[in-house]
Design brief:
The structure holds two protein chains of two kinds.
Chain A (H helix, E strand, L loop, with lengths): L2 H8 L7 E4 L5 H9 L4 E5 L2 H9 L3 E4 L2 H4 L8 E7 L8 H11 E9 L4 H10 L23 H10 L3 E2 L4 H7 L2 E7 L1
Parallel strand pairs in A: 1-2, 1-4, 2-3, 4-5
Antiparallel strand pairs in A: 5-7, 6-7
Chain B lengths: L2 H4 L1 E5 L3 E2 L5 E2 L2 E8 L9 E5 L25 E2 L4 E2 L4 E5 L14 E2 L4 E2 L9 H14 L5 E7 L1 H12 L4 E7 L7 H15 L17 H15 L2 H7 L19 H16 L2 H13 L10 H4 L6 E7 L7 H12 L5 E6 L13 H18 L1
Parallel strand pairs in B: 5-8, 5-11, 6-7, 11-12, 12-13, 13-14
Antiparallel strand pairs in B: 1-4, 2-3, 4-8, 9-10
Helix pairs in contact in B: 2-3, 4-5, 4-8, 5-7
Classes of the chains: A alpha/beta, B alpha/beta.
Chain lengths: ~180, ~375
């Protein structure tokens, strides 16, 4: 399993109620089901990924996080997970609001556009950065709203969203990925 | 072996109060079973049939000598694996395959009920079939499953008996019959009633059959079970055994011939009054009615795990209507999964060989069963 998923899983309390938004093929959900909490379900847009979740015996709802989170009542989950998809939404602000409405806590991960490799790539090559975490070219990337860890922190501060973050300067330069716990 | 010997029936003695106000008792419920009930009695699945289905879901239907209506999905090693699960399927009341229906003899007149048969509802159908649990001494079903009207029965069953099924799979259905669907059913009914042989519903006693009206009803309905793309691909403008148009009203096109055939074989196996009664039951179906329009309330007491399936090309019970059930369940934090299967076969997809659908059902059932057993 990806290191990111291990790090996300560590943040989750035992036997809590969880929603994995954009759960992909269910890898993280399966790990959480087997090790942390059985009360977990996912939302996934891709039909083939939905099938893979069903094959794993996971509860999955085929749907679009931009439209389908509104059906969940306020604070209906202890944790809502959003792994590396925030930047791909048409309206990430709306999705974040929804995550914080339906989850008591939201765990959000973002690819960090402020990482030194990304900065160096643009500085030296003068082309859009392509890295392990950002493997696509500018013309086929699903990422519409790239941001840095610092951008994300500023965003949360402006909106009074509690965010767990230490060593901002260090993280913004040296983390390829930011994983945050957010609370309203 | 005559027809009656091929049909198993349970005589239900317990009075059943119907939604229309009448009470029925000592009525037959025809059923069939597949597979074996295990010692723990935890492997039973109740299958609900759609409008024109019956209890013969798998194998060969001994009355029509054709394949059971869910042969693709149900049988040994299939999606609903009868090597593993014990499957019960009953003919709905109002039907014509041995269960209490308008063809039955009214003891008061010694003639078939015809349109003196009480109007029944999906709720009545489900309450009648609940007796099968008691008969087989099954405390809790592993699953209730069905497509179209069968899916409506699944929803009604879980609402009526919230803790009697571990899992529920409503397929290609709705919680509330739409105006469009009522309209389409009314078209079918009017076609039957416009046939002179219908005789206000008392055709049996006059040895007549409203075959033409019933065939047209079936033809119209059949179109609604398919998709435009599916029809175009299969038939297009292909001509039926001719090189050019005949400038007449013969079946020039293959699609015409196909529909005529579908109509003609249907009348051999289905009773016109049953068609009226069952379509009426579908039209009356609105699970939200008892709950002030709030579908969530219908499932409040349930601890059943839902898995809802729709099909991309189904315009009769479209994804949006299936999704409403998902939304209602999520709104009260119930355990619900939802999948929309890609298929160009229209509403009928659930009856056909659609591998994605069949695999999905198989995976859901087998993984869920691992968890309960």
């Amino acid at each position: 399993m990806k290191k990111e998923f291990h790090n996300i899983a560590k943040l989750i309390t035992k036997n809590s109620k969880i929603l994995d938004v954009g759960c992909g093929n269910g890898e993280l959900m399966k790990y959480i089901t087997e090790n942390i909490s059985k009360d977990i379900r996912g939302i996934e847009l891709s039909k083939s990924n939905v099938q893979k979740c069903v094959e794993k015996g996971l509860t999955v709802i085929e749907g679009d996080a931009e439209k389908d989170l509104k059906q969940f009542p306020d604070s209906s989950f202890d944790f809502v997970i959003l792994s590396q998809t925030l930047q791909a939404f048409l309206d990430p602000e709306n999705v974040l609001n929804e995550l914080l409405r339906i989850g008591k806590k939201a765990i959000v991960s973002i690819p960090n556009f402020g990482h030194w490799k990304v900065r160096l790539h643009l500085l030296l090559k003068g082309t859009m950065p392509v890295t392990e975490n950002l493997p696509n070219e500018w013309y086929n990337t699903p990422n519409l709203h790239m941001c840095t860890i610092k951008d994300f922190e500023n965003y949360c501060k402006q909106r009074n969203i509690k965010i767990n973050l230490k060593n901002l300067k260090f993280q913004n330069l040296f983390s390829e990925l930011g994983i945050f716990i957010l609370e309203k | 072996m005559n027809e009656k010997d091929k049909i198993k029936t349970l005589l239900i003695k317990k009075p059943l109060k119907l939604d229309c106000g009448q009470t029925i008792n000592d009525f037959p419920l025809a059923y069939e079973t597949y597979g074996k009930l295990n010692d723990k009695k935890d492997n039973a699945i109740l299958v609900f049939h759609a409008l024109t289905g019956d209890q013969f879901a798998s194998g060969t239907n001994p009355i029509t000598n054709k394949d059971g209506w869910w042969n693709y999905a149900l049988g040994p090693s299939k999606a609903i694996d009868t090597d593993k699960y014990f499957v019960i399927a009953a003919n709905v009341i109002g039907g014509c395959m041995g269960s209490f229906g308008p063809k039955n003899i009214n003891p008061e007149s010694n003639k078939p009920y015809g349109t003196n048969f009480p109007v029944i509802t999906i709720n009545d159908m489900v309450n009648a079939q609940y007796n099968l649990l008691e008969y087989f001494k099954i405390e809790k079903l592993f699953c209730v499953i069905g497509g179209s009207m069968g899916g409506m029965q699944v929803l009604q069953f879980v609402s009526n008996f919230p803790n009697k099924a571990h899992t529920a799979i409503p397929i290609a259905c709705t919680a509330s019959h739409s105006a469009q669907n009522i309209a389409l059913n009314e078209l079918g009914r009017q076609s039957i009633m416009a046939d002179r042989n219908w005789q206000d519903g008392f055709y049996e006693e006059q040895n007549k059959q409203p075959d033409k009206g019933l065939a047209v009803a079936r033809m119209a309905a059949h179109i609604t079970y398919l998709s435009k793309a599916g029809l175009q691909e299969k038939f297009g403008r292909k001509l039926q055994e001719r090189d050019d148009l005949k400038f007449s009203f013969d079946a020039d096109f293959q699609i015409e011939s196909y529909l005529r055939y579908q109509g003609s074989v249907f009348v051999d196996r289905f009773d016109a009054n049953s068609y009226l009664y069952i379509t009426r039951a579908m039209d009356y179906f609105d699970l939200t009615k008892k709950f002030g329009g709030n579908l969530s309330k219908a499932f409040e007491k349930s601890n059943t795990k839902f898995f809802i399936i729709s099909f991309t090309s189904d315009w009769l019970y479209p994804t949006s209507e299936n999704r409403e059930i998902v939304i209602a369940l999520n709104a009260i934090g119930k355990n619900v999964g939802f999948v929309e299967i890609t298929s160009d076969k229209g509403h009928d997809s659930f009856l056909l060989d659609v591998p994605d659908f069949l695999n999905t059902v198989k995976n859901f059932l087998n993984k869920s069963y691992e968890k309960i057993s």
